[in-house]
Amino acid sequence: MGTAGVVFRKELLEGIRDRRALVAVVLSISIFPVLVLFMGRFSRGVRDEARNLTLPVAGAERAPALVEWLDRQPGLAIDEAPGDPATAVRDRETDLVLRIPDDYAEQFAEGRPAEVELIADSSRATGSVKMRRVTGLLEAYGQEVAALRLISRGVSPLLARPIAVERAEVFSERRRAVFSALGFIPMFLLMNAFFGGMQISADAIAGERERGSIEALLINAAPARLLVFGKWAAASSFAVFLTLLGLLTCVVVLRFLPGALNISPTVADWLMVALLATPLALFCSALQVVVATYAKSYKEAQTYFGYLVFLPMLPFFAVTFQWVEQGSWASFLPILGQHLMILGVVAGEPAAGWELAFAGALALGAAWGLLRFAASLFTRESVVFVR
Amino acid sequence: MIEVSGLRKTFGSVVAVDEVSFRAGDGQITGLLGPNGAGKSTTLRMLYGLMTPEAGEVRVDGVDGRREPLAAQATIGALPDTHALYPRLSGRENIRYFAQLRRIPPEDAASRTDEYIRLLEMGDFVDRRAKGYSHGERSRVLLARALIHEPRNVLLDEPTNGLDVMSTRRMRGMIRQLRDRGRAVLFSSHIMQEVSLLCDRIVIIAAGRVVAEGSPDEIRRAAGREDLEEAFVQLTGPASESASESASEAA
């Protein structure tokens, strides 16, 4: 076995014997299910509440026709309004209140726009969903009344609708799903790719410096680049393992939690995601190897990694705020590229084969460069002799 | 055999090692003696190739240590002053790791390890994780690990530092054995008695410079003192004290 292989085996053995490895495994398989469970429950709860809505109405006696019409709508019940509607909404006693002012009947009879007041707190998820539903209902009622008024004057209601807007949504159902639980998959995998190699690279490099064992290690007539390569191989194989384990959890969660999503990527999709995530894990570990070489102790390395964690978060924001379009040069950068492409695959809009290969090659090339750099640092006197 | 000539190393404005020349021959124990911070560790680090000298030459069995550090390392077994093992590996696994890095066939490595376990009485603890080792246990594993490739040149940086009486005796026994097998043994120490007890040749360093070299008798004669400790004090004495202090700060 070659020198790198010897180092690889030893570091992996030490890594697995570390209790922290077990913690990493548990974390890597539990984050996604918890996230999906939480999200599914949350969004279902909001939808259910909007579907079965109780609407408190203040001054219902001033608009009997409107209130009766609302009461007839499915999934909506009219209720007595609390004494002070604004305070009740603010204190979260109720999500929203419909208030009908004193002059409603008068304005309505005169054919002026009759004002009604909807009191709601749109900062609350359930509040804004309910408000949207009630507003829609009120507008529908208004159009019904308007049509009747026009007909009674012998005018076709169609005249009042010079333009009919037809919405053609190109936003596919799968694409929409990306902004739900599926959208978490790339970030979740990225986190695993990142956290996976952290413990081994910190211990095998910064820890080696801290203990001073690096001095004895470097006098074994073994080239430093092979030592660094072996350490990276151990860290990144753990990262790849955790990433693929995380991917497996995604598959299982989406398979056994139906209802949360009506979408299931195919086996080929998942394989493509695995193919994208693997170079990502290799790159992340190489980055950590370089950073750990600068750290004098395990703790210091962890501190640096803490800052580095923002890196896998960045693509999440880049996608959410649409900084980067797929196909632009930035969409091939390591981490960002993989994030976009994994997102594309789970959304049913995979990138072309050459794009996948190019982004992968770029990540691997960058990893190679980082490792060469780390190896050149590794034998520096300032690195070897900390104390 | 180790030959050093004109070795120089500075850290910033501090000269740690200056014009150091000596020889450590095969079948001899050579002691590098000097007060703390005299430049002993720095000298040894340049010998096993982890520090680059600014000037001078290092030859290990004729191999240029500056041009071919890995080739020189191949014939060296060294015990640095950082007494660190891998805590989550057992003593035996620690030794095996270095044997593999040195590309020793597994059977040879196993039989040599067993030999060292017997010689250094490590049977009780060698298969436990190194995390809980005492200082003495650790130093025995470190020594076995450094010698697993049967190096012709052995460099030991303050090998008895912090050891109890029994461990120290065991270490001295090993050093004599290595000499008797024809190895070139170079060890550093700041303890006069130890050096005079063990060494065939003594190199005294103070403030980065060699102030005396020779057999214990030659050193006594050169200093004009009967007592070796007196000779040591005189040779490394007050004249060089301030310089040695500043060197220790740098190291």
Structural description of this entry:
The complex is a heterodimer of chains A (387) and B (251). Chain A has helices at 3-17, 19-51, 64-72, 85-90, 104-110, 125-152, 173-178, 184-196, 198-211, 213-217, 224-256, 267-294, 298-308, 310-320, 336-346, 353-378, 381-384; strands at residues 53-58, 76-80, 96-99, 117-120. By secondary structure, chain A is mainly α. With 251 residues, chain B is an alpha/beta fold. Chain B contains ten helices and ten strands. Residues 239-251 of chain B have low confidence and may be disordered. In chain B, 40% of the residues lie in helices and 25% in strands. The interface between A and B is medium-sized, with 26 and 32 residues.
Q: Which terms summarize this structure?
A:
heterodimer, A: 387 residues, four-stranded mixed beta sheet, B: 251 residues, alpha/beta, six-stranded mixed beta sheet, 10 helices
Quick take:
The complex is a heterodimer of chains A (387) and B (251). By secondary structure, chain A is mainly alpha-helical.
Q: Report helical residue fraction of chain A.
A: 55-70%
Strand content of chain B: 15-25%
According to DSSP, the number of beta strands of chain A is 4
- Helix content class of chain B: 40-55%
The topology string of helices and strands of chain B comes to EEEHEEHEHHHEHEHEEHHH
Q: How would you describe the shape of chain A?
A: elongated
User: Helix- and strand-based class of chain B?
Assistant: alpha/beta
Q: What is the percentage of strand-forming residues of chain A?
A: under 5%
Describe the protein's topology:
The complex is a heterodimer of chains A (387) and B (251).
Chain A: H1 3-17, H2 19-51, E1 53-58, H3 64-72, E2 76-80, H4 85-90, E3 96-99, H5 104-110, E4 117-120, H6 125-152, H7 173-178, H8 184-196, H9 198-211, H10 213-217, H11 224-256, H12 267-294, H13 298-308, H14 310-320, H15 336-346, H16 353-378, H17 381-384
Parallel strand pairs in A: 1-2, 1-3
Antiparallel strand pairs in A: 3-4
Helix pairs in contact in A: 1-9, 1-11, 2-6, 2-8, 2-11, 8-11, 8-12, 8-14, 8-15, 9-11, 9-12, 9-13, 11-12, 11-16, 12-13, 12-15, 12-16, 14-15
Chain B: E1 2-11, E2 14-24, E3 28-33, H1 40-47, E4 55-60, E5 63-64, H2 69-74, E6 76-79, H3 91-101, H4 106-119, H5 135-147, E7 153-157, H6 165-180, E8 184-189, H7 192-198, E9 201-206, E10 209-214, H8 216-223, H9 228-235, H10 241-250
Parallel strand pairs in B: 3-8, 3-9, 6-7, 7-8
Antiparallel strand pairs in B: 1-2, 1-4, 4-5, 9-10
